[in-house]
Design goal:
The chain is an alpha+beta fold. The protein has one domain (2-169). Helix content is 23%, strand content 35%. The strands form two sheets. Strands 4-5-2-1-7-8 form a six-stranded mixed beta sheet, with helices on both faces. Strands 3-6-9 form a three-stranded antiparallel beta sheet. The protein is globular. Residues 1-22 form the signal peptide. Keywords: Signal.
Amino acid sequence: MMLLKIITILIICILMCANALAHMMVAQHGTINIVDKGAFMVLSLPVSAFEGLDMDNDSKASSAELTRYKNQATELIHENVQLSDSKAKLPLQGLIISLASHGNPKKPSSHLIVMGKYPLDNTNSELTFTNRLFGRHLSEKQMDMTITRQHDKQKQTFTIDKDQSSKTLLNASAD
């Protein structure tokens, strides 16, 4: 019951901080923070990775464009951004997609901020992260990731790209 309360509080914090996080995430970067029974993800993904999102071809997404395209973006994220354990692909829950506002949420942006949670049965399981959403521009063809696991203070950084879009995360630890 206490774990459920902690997870609920974390999700509420993520939801309340969505706009604040949207301007603090550097383009082409992502984080996954493994806490209790969840892996909390924040990614900055390029608009050009989402075919059809940029309807006026200005290389940016407006809030109106994102609103019209949100269902397609959600589907693409579920298909192309994955966390798996040794058994299966884990479900992405509580997906939030917003513009990388840089302080002005109404200003069009070249990147989207994607946040969500993957439930974990065991925080020590071997996990694999996959991202196949890369942009058309040279600067959008790779992503720097930082992974942390709270209970044993492990941290991992790596870069993924179109050719190497998956990476095994952290070494399994014995509690």
